[in-house]
Amino acid sequence: MHSPSLLVHLFLRADRVEHRDAPDRSYLEAVWEGCGRLGMERAIPGRLEPLELPAALPPGRGSTVRVLAAREAPGAGVRQAFVFRSHDVVGLTALLAPSDGRGWRELEAIWDRHCPAPGDDVVPLGGVRLYRALGGSRSLRGGGARRLTADLRGSAPPHPAGTRAGWSGPCAAAHDGILLWEQRIGPEARLQGDRRLVVVGHRSSEARLDGWTWIEGEPGLTALGRYLLHAAKLRYEARVYAAGAGFRGLRAEAEEVLDDLMRLHSRPPERIEEFLAAARGLARLQAGGEGLITAATRLRALRRTAEIAAANMTAAVGEEWFRDPAGPFAQDRRTAQWLTAQLDDDVLYLQATSDRARDRRLQRPRLPQLRELHPHPPAPPAWAARRRRVWSEKTSKPSSRNCPGGSHPAPCATG
């Protein structure tokens, strides 16, 4: 392999970058300043994008990628970076492609020295390190791919997670003279926010490799960049779902309250307040700001987001990259299928609990229970007794009208 280079993608939620004092905004600015320390001190000639980040981020315009700032380093090789916005994502992409033959490990050490890692208060959608290179004259199929797999095991940097990390083999995906591998870590690889991939193109495919991974004539996301953005959104939503035990606890709590109400229906409670407290608790769990209805709505929105991300992933690179079942593309698709299936099940269970909670018979005690709670109801107030006495006197007086069904005047019977 020759002409090694390092391509870095950073994806952030736009709503966490819009405020100047937000931790995610500070992190983006720190990485952008780090690019300046890497020698990228000038704007890209012939481009209109400014060197510095705008004070206020412009609104997203659908899926259109809008470059907000761009910079490069003069001299041999390529050292460029740009910041962009696409819909609800703000991202940074940087390329270190020296002409002196420095390898991936040295390039990664240089990047880490100048550009900080996110702090605990930063919540990125994800990040990608893409180790690029050109293969030799060998074919990138069959035995050539296997030899490249063996070579990159010693050339690619180890993952910070430690010895459990390993590069997939055989090649994870191949198409049109380009091979791609991904470094996987442990059983929860599909939830990783930070990804590491190796992309190798045949030496005759250098232009195709650049156009697929880095730049297509002008700064902006290429096909692989768009794919990785949508895959980062998918993985972020999967992490949100995996960490979202709150709605499961909410459903369990609601089921417990419903069981209590069923028990109170089967036998009279000692006090009516006991029944009313359970009914109020159920109403809170059903319709509160964090209730069953809200939880089901959020899960439906999460499912739709995952569905859109999966469709955008396919649209970005084409169906041919998903043919290898062991490749990262096919694995990302399986992650989307797993997430949508889990969300479908959870929405169904939440809806069943919510339907059960809407049963009005559970929200009020039966009449026999009320009679057992109050076998001797309290005496009515004095004003009610007076009104009843006056009404009784009025109705007991004889009437001067004819009784129905008779032809002679006579007092109508009362009672």
Automatic annotation (TrEMBL):
User: Which residues does the UniProt record annotate as the domain CASPASE and TPR Repeat-Associated C-terminal?
Assistant: 223-357
Residue ranges of every copy of the CASPASE and TPR Repeat-Associated N-terminal domain listed in the record:
6-217
Pfam (any one): CATRA-N
Q: InterPro entries annotated for this entry?
A: CATRA-C, CATRA-N
List the residue ranges of the region (Disordered): 359-415
Q: What is this protein called?
A: BN6_48550 family protein
Q: What is the lineage of its organism?
A: Bacteria, Bacillati, Actinomycetota, Actinomycetes, Kitasatosporales
